Amino acid sequence: MIRTSGLTKSFGQILAVDGIDLDVREGDIYGFLGANGSGKTTTVRMLLGLVLASSGEIEVLGKRMPKQAKIVLPRVGALVEGPGAYPHLSGRRNLALSDAAGVGGSRSDRTVRIDAVLDQVGLAGVDNRPVKAYSLGMRQRLGLASALLRKPELLILDEPTNGLDPQGIREIRDLLLALHAGGTTVFLSSHLLAEVEQLCTRVGVLDRGRLVLQDQLDILTAPTGNSVVRTPDVDRAHALLDGRVLGKDGDRLTVAGTDAATLNVLLVREGIRVSELGPDRRTLEQVVLEAATNSGSDRIPAVTPSRPDQPAATFGVSG
Amino acid sequence: MIAVEIRKMLRRPRTWVTILMLNALPTLIAVLLALTDIGPRPGEGPVFLSSVLSNGTLFPLAALAVILPLFLPVAVAVIAGDSIAGEAQSGTLRYLLVRPVGRTRLLVAKLASIFVFVLLAVVVVAAIGYVVGVNLFGTASVAASVSGTTLTNEQIAVRTALAIGYITLSMLGVAAMALFLSTLTDSPLAATLGALAFLIASSLLFTLDAADALSPYLPTRYWLAFADLFRDPIQWRDITRGIALQGVYVGVLLSAAWANFTTKDITS
Question: Does domain A223-281 have CATH number 1.10.8.100?
Answer without folding.
Answer: no
